[in-house]
Amino acid sequence: MRYRFIDRFGVSISLPGFGSLTAGPHQMNLPPEEGADLVVSAFRRGINLIDTADIYETYPYINLALRKIGTEPAENLHIMSRSYEYTYEGMKKSVDRALEGMGISSLLCFMLHEMESEHTIRGHSPALDCLVDLKKAGIIKMTGVSTHHIAGVRAADKDPRVDAIF
Fold this sequence. Notes:
This protein has 166 residues and is an alpha/beta fold. It contains seven helices and eight strands, in the order E-E-E-H-E-H-H-E-H-E-H-H-E-H-E. The protein has helices at 32-44, 59-69, 71-74, 88-102, 118-123, 125-136, 150-158; strands spanning 2-6, 11-15, 18-19, 49-51, 78-83, 107-112, 140-145, 164-165. It has a six-stranded parallel β-sheet. It has a two-stranded antiparallel ribbon with strand order 1-2. Strand 7 (140-145), helix 7 (150-158) and strand 8 (164-165) form a beta-alpha-beta unit. Helix 1 (32-44) crosses helix 2. It is globular, with a radius of gyration of 15 Å.
């Protein structure tokens, strides 16, 4: 397994990571036990980065997987999630849903979901400000933006509040 060490944040993440979307209700719709087993299997094979999002509805899978893995090994599992929320309050609730849904107290990264350009990032600025505050509070290690657009990458790269682009 290959790993990439992120100096600035002191974490080593696997390449590749495990994307939870396909196991969840919007694609394969696996029962939580089966979805959890996939996460556990990936972790046992050296994958320590789990990708999810508020909209994926896979937090129960990850919660169950973390309980199966156990506390000490789970400390080496890094989870990133994201949300479409655009208000400060909405983003705070979204992060709280993630933490409660997975039964954890912190996340490697939380992102704005599917930002297209500087305009969508600007429109989600209060939500990004919330993530910055949650980072300062130690609840998330990194803020981020996910995108499928070059304009989104370029805009996120210029925003000093953004630590990661996905």
